[in-house]
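Morning F.,

Quick status update on the modeling queue. The single chain you submitted on Monday has been processed. Sequence for confirmation:
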Amino acid sequence: MQSLIVDGYNIIHAWPALHATLRERGLEDARRQLVSAMAEYAAQTGIAVTVVFDAHARPGALPSTEKLDGVTVLFGSKRATADHVIERAAYKASQRGEGADVVVATDDRLERDVVGAMGVATMGARALEAEVARIAGDVGHETRRMRDDSKRSTRVEDSIDPEIRRRLERLRRGEDR
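Structure tokens below.
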């Protein structure tokens, strides 16, 4: 996979943490939290991530595009829903012969069938959540390992037997002649 297209509101409603944010703090915070998680995922994997939202509470009749923390965020319009935007992107990738490099993340069964018919792979919301958590866990594990490694001394004297170190120190001071 080189490119991931995420059905934004579908994922927000499917992931428990995002759904809780939606209920407690509102749509904008839930969107921000999803984009942040996807930005971290993109940064760690090198996969180009696009998150697509419907035009809810967005002015204007035309679709809009933003780049946030390395993630492309697309908003549909009154005429072009998020599903249409996703289908168009999948179709274009398929036409360029890149359909196998793209994955669409959604739990919308119809959307999965439509893009799947174009030769584009799909993954469910839970699978995406597990993948994002796995990558975050790998990063946390690697960070802890590096921190532990940096605490260990790399000085030669620290690997020498303490008795030999004492004798060498006495020699250095001229006490053992």
